[in-house]
Amino acid sequence: MRAPPAVPTVTAATGTHGAIAKASAKTGVDFNYLLGQAQVESGMRTNARARTSSATGLYQFIEQSWLGVVKRHGAEHGMGWAANSIEQTAGGRYVVSDTATRSAILSLRTDANAASLMAAEHASDNKAAIEGSLGREANGTDLYMAHFLGLGGAKKFLAAMEAVPDRGAAAMFPAAARANRSIFYAPDGSQRSLGDIYQRFAGKLDRGAQVAGATGTASGNFFADAQAPAFPAPFAGIDVILGNEASGGDDRWLQTTMANLNVVRAADRADPARAATLRPTPETARLAYLMLANLGA
User: Fold this and answer.
1) In this structure, is residue 55 part of a structural domain?
2) Separation between Cα atoms, residue 217 and residue 202, nearest integer Å
3) Which domain holds residue 52?
4) Taking the CB of residue 74, how many other CB atoms lie within 10 A of it?
C-alpha cells in the first residue's frame, strides 16, 4: 500500500492560531469557539495527550471520533487518502485494515491544520443534530458538550438539564464521571448538578478563548457570519512595510485589508492622518488574519 503523504505540522503559537483561523474561515464555524475549545482541551498544545483515554492533540479527539470525522470530511480538506482507508463495520466502529495507515491517520490529531478543520467539521455536524433534538439553536456550550460526551451523551445531558437542571450528573454518566472526577464532583465529594456543569463549561470556554487571545465569547452563538476572528496577542503590534512594487504602485486595497495589523505603505508612514482614515471591516479583518497565516506569521 502506498504510504500516505506527509502533512506539515504547525507547532508555533502563531501557527496554531493561524490554523484555527483558516479552519474558521473555511467552514464558517465561529473562531472564538474553536479557539476557546482548543485552549480548554489542550492548552493550545498540538501534542497534548490524555492520561485516562485515547484523547490526543489540539482538540483531544479520541480514536473513534477522529476516524469518524475524517471518514466524513477528510476528502474535503485534502485527506482523501485517509478517508478512503477508513471503513465502518456493521456495528458502527471505524477501522483501518493497514496498521501503518491507521497510525498515520491517528497521528494527524497532532497536526494543527488537520485538527482544527476536523474540530470545526465535527462541531458543525453536531449542531444540526442537537438543534433537531432540542428544537432550539445550539450555542457554543451545547457543542462543547457534544465534544465532551459524544453526540448521544450531549442530547441526553441537554434534554435532562432543561427538564431538571439540579439533577446530579455523575449518576447519569458514570463512565465519564470516573474519567473526569473533578468535573462531575465538587471538592467535598458531592455530585455537581447538570446545570452547574453546563455553566462551568460555558465559563471555562469563555476564559479559554480570552487566554488564547480572543475578544469575543466562545459559549454563545455558534456561527458568527458577521464577526471576524479576533486577533490573538502574538499578532499585536505587527508593523509591515509595503513598497509600491507589491501592487504596481497602488496598494490601497491591501492597505485597507491589513489595517487591523498596522500594515501601511512605506510612503504613508509619515502621514498618520491619512492612515487613520483606513477603517477595517469584519471581512477585511478576517482576510488580513488569513493572509498572515498563509505567510506563516
Assistant:
1) yes
2) 9
3) 13-136+205-212
4) 24
Whole-prediction pTM value? 0.67
Does residue 72 form part of some domain? yes
Question: To the nearest whole number, what is the mean pLDDT of the chain?
Answer: 77
Q: What is the SS3 string spanning the chain?
A: CCCCCCCCCCCCHHHHHHHHHHHHHHHCECHHHHHHHHHHHHCCCCCCECCCCCCECCCCECHHHHHHHHHHHHHHHCCHHHHHHEEECCCCCEEECCHHHHHHHHHHHHCHHHHHHHHHHHHHHHHHHHHHHHCCCCEHHHHHHHHHHHHHHHHHHHHHHHHCCCCECCCCCHHHHHHCHHHHECCCCCECEHHHHHHHHHHHHHHHHHHHCCCCCCCCECECCCCCCCCCHHHCCCCCEECHHHHCCCCHHHHHHCHHHCCEEHHHCCCHHHHHCCCCCHHHHHHHHHHHHHCCC
Q: Does residue 175 fall inside a structural domain?
A: no
pLDDT digits 0-9 by tens, 47-63: 999 887 899 999 999 99
| Residue 37 is assigned to a structural domain of this protein | yes
Q: Count of domains in the chain?
A: 2
Tell me the mean pLDDT per 10 residues along the chain, length 297.
42 73 92 92 94 91 96 97 97 97 97 96 92 91 90 95 96 93 95 96 91 80 39 37 36 37 39 40 45 47
- The CA distances from residue 197 to 20, 49, 232, 251, 295, in Å, are 26, 23, 28, 51, 40
